[in-house]
């Protein structure tokens, strides 16, 4: 099931996405969900065309835990070794934006990069989750762009400002609850030109490995997000660019880059 979060007439709701096509095609409708999708809920039967609503970030995470250097070719392209243990860092909740929202080029950077990633959405409060039970705590998956101020990352060493600035974590367009994450195509285009193309099967550590590793240290809450790393091909974004992340079986997340006001 594809579950979107949206606003219409000033109200925010969740809905199940029905039909085939793109958000702009007019072929998709939303069946509004009664309640919160992480808990017991049911479809209301009240349907609205998806192209008549504003899609929001599919979740509002209390935290986004991101994993660096989880694809060997990406680590190599930046001159890094594959780490012995997962490299984890945080992106604050204020960094999250949704499909169609603008990425604001930070004033303190002159080298902004895209990083297409598979995002794991947690569905229940959990900690110390063994790998064999990880699937029980996952709500679903969405597309993400770990937008990075590369020059700041290299200059400051700590990644908080480079990867945690406002609008640096686009998520969407919705959460897919029934996809197998083990071997999906990940693609990133900028102005229609392909920049990244990889498969989740190339991840050094699997989704189960990452959820178990993160939850060993901290409690995960419903709606929390884990970013699983990016394949090779990261590159620059400029003001005016349109960047799209497409993940097989999930959908396409599109955002434009604007000058920070």
UniProtKB/TrEMBL annotation:
<dbReference type="InterPro" id="IPR036663">
    <property type="entry name" value="Fumarylacetoacetase_C_sf"/>
</dbReference>
<feature type="domain" description="Rv2993c-like N-terminal">
    <location>
        <begin position="1"/>
        <end position="58"/>
    </location>
</feature>
<keyword id="KW-0413">Isomerase</keyword>
<dbReference type="Pfam" id="PF01557">
    <property type="entry name" value="FAA_hydrolase"/>
</dbReference>
<dbReference type="InterPro" id="IPR018833">
    <property type="entry name" value="Rv2993c-like_N"/>
</dbReference>
<dbReference type="GO" id="GO:0018773">
    <property type="term" value="F:acetylpyruvate hydrolase activity"/>
</dbReference>
<keyword id="KW-0479">Metal-binding</keyword>
<feature type="domain" description="Fumarylacetoacetase-like C-terminal">
    <location>
        <begin position="63"/>
        <end position="257"/>
    </location>
</feature>
<dbReference type="GO" id="GO:0016853">
    <property type="term" value="F:isomerase activity"/>
</dbReference>
<dbReference type="Pfam" id="PF10370">
    <property type="entry name" value="Rv2993c-like_N"/>
</dbReference>
<dbReference type="GO" id="GO:0019752">
    <property type="term" value="P:carboxylic acid metabolic process"/>
</dbReference>
<dbReference type="GO" id="GO:0046872">
    <property type="term" value="F:metal ion binding"/>
</dbReference>
<protein>
    <submittedName>
        <fullName>2-hydroxyhepta-2,4-diene-1,7-dioate isomerase</fullName>
    </submittedName>
</protein>
<dbReference type="InterPro" id="IPR011234">
    <property type="entry name" value="Fumarylacetoacetase-like_C"/>
</dbReference>
């Amino acid at each position: 099931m594809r579950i979107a979060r949206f606003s219409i007439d000033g109200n925010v709701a969740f809905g199940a996405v029905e039909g085939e096509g793109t958000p702009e095609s007019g072929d998709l409708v939303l069946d509004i969900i009664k309640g919160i999708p992480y808990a017991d809920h049911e479809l209301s039967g009240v349907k609205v065309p998806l192209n008549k609503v504003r899609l929001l970030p599919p979740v509002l995470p209390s935290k986004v835990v991101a994993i660096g250097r989880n694809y060997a070719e990406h680590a190599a392209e930046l001159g890094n070794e594959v780490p012995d243990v997962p490299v984890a860092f945080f992106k604050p909740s204020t960094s999250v934006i949704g499909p169609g929202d603008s990425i604001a080029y930070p004033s303190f950077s002159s080298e902004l990069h895209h990083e297409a990633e598979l995002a794991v959405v947690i569905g229940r409060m959990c900690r110390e989750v063994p790998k064999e039970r990880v699937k029980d705590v996952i709500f679903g998956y969405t597309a993400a762009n770990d937008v990075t101020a590369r020059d700041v990352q290299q200059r400051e060493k700590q990644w908080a400002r480079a990867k945690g600035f406002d609008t640096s974590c686009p998520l969407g367009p919705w959460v897919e609850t029934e996809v197998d994450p083990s071997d999906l195509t990940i693609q990133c285009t900028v102005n229609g030109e392909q920049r990244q193309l990889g498969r989740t099967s190339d991840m050094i550590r699997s989704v189960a490995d990452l959820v178990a590793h993160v939850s060993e240290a901290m409690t995960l809450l419903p709606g929390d997000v884990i970013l699983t790393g990016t394949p090779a091909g990261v590159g620059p974004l400029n003001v005016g660019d349109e960047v799209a992340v497409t993940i097989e079986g999930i959908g396409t997340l599109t955002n434009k880059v604007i000058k920070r006001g």
